[in-house]
Design a protein that fits this description.
By secondary structure, this protein is α/β, with parallel strands linked by helices. Among the domains are: 4-86, Gyrase A, domain 2 (2-Layer Sandwich), CATH 3.30.1360; 165-239, no CATH class; 384-443; 451-574, Isoleucyl-tRNA Synthetase, Domain 1 (Orthogonal Bundle), CATH 1.10.730.10. 51% of the residues lie in helices and 9% in strands. It contains 20 helices and 13 strands. It has helices spanning 4-18, 42-50, 54-63, 88-99, 133-148, 165-176, 179-184, 186-203, 205-219, 223-247, 264-273, 310-324, 339-351, 384-402, 408-428, 440-443, 451-468, 498-516, 523-543, 553-574; strands at residues 27-29, 38-40, 75-77, 81-84, 114-119, 152-156, 277-280, 283-286, 299-302, 329-333, 357-361, 366-367, 436-437. The strands form four sheets. It has a four-stranded antiparallel sheet, with helices on one face. Helix 4 packs across helix 20 (553-574), helix 14 (384-402) crosses helix 15 (408-428) and helix 18 runs antiparallel to helix 19. The chain is globular, with a radius of gyration of 28 Å. The model is unreliable at 473-486 (pLDDT under 50). It binds arginine.
């Protein structure tokens, strides 16, 4: 099914051809909806290119435009914009089509790729904290959207389960462990001994040396140290899994750093052989002498003591993802502090001849209400698990006030949907590069651009259908997951009120918005669209009685409600956010 935007774009190129002009400019949604629904700057672009009067060109293009039953005669405005206003008949027809389409009008991408998305990727022996929200939530949303658009996505959790920190963890485990504390909360105790060892090592060279030796023993495969390492990884994974369950995050694979351990010598050897790496002062190093940006930033891939590092692992990872997983693209959803690291990795991959499309998707920080990086009162990172549990607790309060007669099970379920949804939405509704302030009040508000506001719009729609009861039941039509099956069906739609037409137009835009998210990796575009949709719905709901109106308005309006509910549910689903049936 084609969107209005693509239909108009086609008609525009036809008009240009008929007018003897080349294809030019863009066809976009109108910046000011008072003048139309879509616009093109084609005449402006051509005017500039050919030194001709853009307004005259615009008139010429408009005169050749075949409006068919799609839109009114195009209007030339300003310096040479052409505006298009859709006809209600076209909107009605498209809305009916959407009602019958499981994909809500969203076409599959023509050139699909196999994409590995590296997101979340926490480190073992540290609890997941608030800093992990963005990578995890953003990566998951991108994965869901890419999948819906037809790409083959492999979500990979590149867990930091190997590296120098394990020298300290093992030293701490052997020398500082409190067995009782360990039984109460293993991960907290591991974190405690790791931190304490870190502090001791900072001031005591003997401790430092002891840690180094523990690390060497681990790397050599010493049994005792390997067992300790295994246990630490397992305890950490339990914590991660708990968080993933709350967040409804699912990985296809979880190849942590240790997975690549055996491949590292091979990577270094290969790079030495090809001359991309060289030996420098006993270490193996890649220089980027001909790259102005990286010329003074060589990358060590094997240290003088023979140890490998984070970068070596990432080189092995590219190799695995390309050669074993057959990836066409790899997206790294990792914070901005690693920009240099990925520039170096991508440059080496390019030199090795990999043609895989490598993207580093960065993001801003989450700030506390004091506008500084968010911390606990004692200055620590806020554990993600606590934060998510608090979100559910606070959401529960809202439900207790709003709808106290719900059953206990319903309350638990709804609180989770609202609380987790609020945390995710607060993140995804921001442009990813923007720092944002983490505010419970704001994200849990039932008014404004929040998850609870959108969920509430959905709930309102569901309650209309509950009220409509059997009277509204006609032919079964949509196999909506979690839906109630039989729904009223409209075979014709009559849009008379402006609020109806506006809502219908918004619904038709869903298919234009979703594919755009992957341009620049911006789920906020989808979030903001859903917010506008909910606003249009509320305006409609205030202006147009649904159940109390007479036919044919009643069926028409029920159909608009139904489609709005589906788009809200599906759109939020693409962001990883669930909707409750009541709240
Ligand atoms: N574990 C790393 C960290 O916490 C992130 C890993 C990102 N992925 C990668 N392939 N390097 O900083």
């Amino acid at each position: 099914m084609e969107t209005f935007q693509s239909l108009l774009a086609k008609k525009l190129s036809e008009a240009l051809a008929k007018a003897g002009l080349p294809t030019a400019g863009e066809l976009t949604p109108a910046t000011d909806r008072r003048f139309g629904d879509y616009q093109t700057n084609a005449a402006l672009v051509l005017g500039k290119e050919r030194g001709e009067n853009p307004r005259a060109l615009a008139e010429k293009i408009a005169a050749h435009f075949d409006v068919g039953d799609l839109c009114e005669t195009p209007a030339v405005a300003g310096a040479g914009f052409i505006n298009f206003t859709l006809l209600s008949g076209a909107i009605e027809k498209k809305t009916l089509e959407l009602l019958r389409d499981e994909r809500l009008g969203v076409a599959e991408t023509k050139s699909t790729q196999r994409i590995v998305i590296d997101f979340g990727s926490p480190n073992v022996a540290k609890p997941m904290h608030v800093g992990h929200i963005r990578s995890t939530v953003l990566g998951d949303a991108l994965a869901r959207i890419a999948r819906f658009l037809g790409h083959e996505v492999i979500g990979d959790n590149h867990i930091g389960d190997w590296g120098t920190q394990f020298g300290m963890v093992i030293y701490g485990w052997k020398n500082l462990l409190d067995r009782q504390a360990m039984q109460r909360n293993p991960l907290a105790e591991i974190v405690r001994v790791y931190k304490e060892t870190n502090e001791r090592a900072a001031s005591d060279p003997q401790v430092r040396e002891a840690c180094r030796q523990e690390l060497v023993k681990l790397q050599e495969g010493d049994k005792e140290n390997t067992d300790i390492w295994n246990e630490c990884v397992a305890f950490s994974m339990q914590d991660f899994e708990h968080v993933y369950k709350l967040l409804d995050i699912h990985y296809d694979i979880q190849c942590g750093e240790s997975f690549y351990h055996d491949r590292l010598p091979g990577v270094v050897e290969r790079l030495l052989k090809s001359g991309i790496a060289e030996i420098s002062e006993g270490a193996v190093v890649v220089f980027f002498r001909d790259n102005p940006e990286l010329a003074d930033k060589p990358l060590i891939i094997r240290k003088r003591d023979g140890g490998f590092n984070y970068a070596t692992t990432d080189l092995a990872t590219v190799d695995y993802r390309v050669n074993d997983l057959k990836a066409d693209a790899i997206w790294y959803v990792v914070g901005a502090p690693q920009i240099l690291h990925f520039k170096q990795i991508f440059e080496i991959a390019r030199r090795e001849g990999y043609t895989v499309d490598l993207r580093h998707i960065i993001f801003g920080s989450i700030l506390g209400e004091d506008r500084k990086l968010m911390k606990t009162r004692s200055g620590e990172n806020v554990p993600l698990r606590d934060l998510l549990e608090e979100a559910c607790k606070r959401a529960r309060k809202i439900i207790e006030e709003k709808n106290p007669q719900l059953t206990e099970d319903e309350k638990i379920d709804i609180a989770e949907k609202i609380g987790i949804g609020a945390v995710k939405y607060a993140d995804l509704s921001q442009y990813r590069m923007t720092d944002y302030i983490f505010s419970w009040e704001k994200m849990l508000s039932l008014h404004g651009n929040t998850a609870p506001y959108l969920q509430n719009a959905y709930v309102r729609i569901r309650s209309i259908f509950r009220k409509a009861g059997d009277a509204a039941v006609a032919t079964p039509l949509w196999g909506v997951e979690g839906g109630t099956g039989h729904r009223p069906v409209a075979t014709t739609l009559t849009l008379t009120e402006p609020a109806e037409t506006n809502l219908a137009k918004r619904l038709c835009q869903f298919a234009e918005i979703v594919p755009q998210v992957l341009n620049g990796f911006r789920p906020n575009i989808l979030a903001n669209y859903l917010f506008e949709l909910a606003n249009s719905f509320h305006t409609f709901y205030e202006a147009c009685p649904v159940l109390k109106s007479s036919e044919p308005a009643r069926s028409s309006r029920l159909a608009l409600c139904e489609l709005t509910g589906r788009v809200l549910k599906h759109g939020l689903g693409l962001l990883g956010i669930k909707v409750p049936e009541r709240m």
